[in-house]
Task: structure prediction
Amino acid sequence: MDIPLKSYESAIIDKVAKAASVLSTETYLVGGFVRDKLLNRETDDADFVCVGDAMALATETARQFSPVPKISYFKRFGTAHFKVLLQERNDDGKSEKKYFELEFASARKESYRTDSRKPDVEPGTLTDDQNRRDFTINALAISLNLSDYGKLIDPFQGLKDLHQKIIRTPLEPARTFSDDPLRMLRAIRFAAQLEFRIDENTWKGIQDSAHRIKIVSQERITDEINKILLCPKPSIGFDLLFRSGLLKIIFPALHDLAGAEYKDGQRHKDNFYHTLQVVDNVAKRSDNLWLRWAALLHDIGKPATKKFEEGHGWTFHGHEVVGGKLVPKIFSRFRLPSAEPMRYVKKLVELHLRPISLTKENITDSAIRRLLFDAGDDLDDLMILCEADITSKNKQKVKRYLENFQIVRQRCREVEEKDHIRNWQPPVSGEVIMETFGLPPSKPVGVIKDAIKNAILDGLIPNTYEAAFQLMLEKGNELGLKPKNISS
Ligand code: ATP
Ligand code: MG
Result:
């Protein structure tokens, strides 16, 4: 076999070939595994296609592993998959669990009806199966049959495209994209992931079929967006989405950032391309998908807040607040988790201007304490976002801004060491306030709680239970509240 295999990969493939021989089923290694191996990329799964019963092939293969892995069968699609445990030791001598997934499918002919995402599937030959694949580089197959074991079957010159770094559909692009419009996003994702270029004819096909992306489920679209965001240089993918016409349909809020208006000799920057640069800058420093989402959305409130002020130029006042409010809506549209990652992204969008405001002279400890309190454990990520947000072409300016952020970081370290604010909670909780005044959860509880928090952050009272309790009583008194029991 002319591909560089790790020893466990060879062992797994041998087992599949053996099962195929026992069952006399024509079997091939196909798709992403062949592509990635030829590109020397890491893979943790492999697809096998057979002209015959894929479920039987999966069962026969699984029998050779010990313990026998549990197989998931998808009868309707005639596919099956299971994963095998690879024991790997890392450098510290600690063992970590790593799995390899095997997918089995019966070769099929496939055509999607124009009005639906549901494929019409019927059994087919290897050639039929290669025809229904999305790109020439994904249609490569390697024989696991005795007669020509290891032979590369490459009907569309996929190997040549792999060497020339080209994404091209095996059939007419219109046909491939009409059968499953998600393939347009996959083309762009592969272009970004592999840093390949999209063949001209295929690119035209994407532009012509872009409107058909509407029939694809949001989950599949979101999956591709996340994969683009996780690329080493996500801007490649988002730029292609923009230029193809797809972005306008799948992510209008991001699309609306594009363009640079001109008035009275003043032009504002193109916030779309600025955003892409910020995402790339973050990608250089962090693999955290949600920090990359925060970069993508940090200026999302700009179109709604854009104003031209006479004598002042273009302004986007409050765009961080408006942007923060858009985050839950965007997360819901993209069916992204609404709890923790959403809270984190919203917070970073809301706070992304705060460290800049702290680069001025004479910043008080109290302003630093507020940042520490508001950002909490996400302060380091916020600083990465802020530094990534510097996209000026003027090297002197960039240097000066970065130095200013170093000063903010230093101040944060000093104040944190002294006051321990990052994981701090005010010493008197909402529960204590409610209990003291016999209140249900209500507005006055929040008012008193905030007053205590602000007084401590501003250094007006010490950070102690006694001082906070005393202030609570005073504030309650101002609000006309009477304590039920002040013995505590
Ligand atoms: P990745 O695993 O990084 O998403 P991949 O190419 O391996 O990339 P899979 O979804 O694992 O993608 O699919 C395996 C193979 O199945 C692909 O290489 C391709 O041949 C085929 N394939 C997957 N999705 C489609 C699709 N929407 N249309 C046509 N062929 C597809
Ligand atoms: Mg894959």
Residues 430-478 form one domain. The first strand starts at residue 26 and ends at 30. The mean pLDDT is 90. The two ends are 78 Å apart (CA to CA).
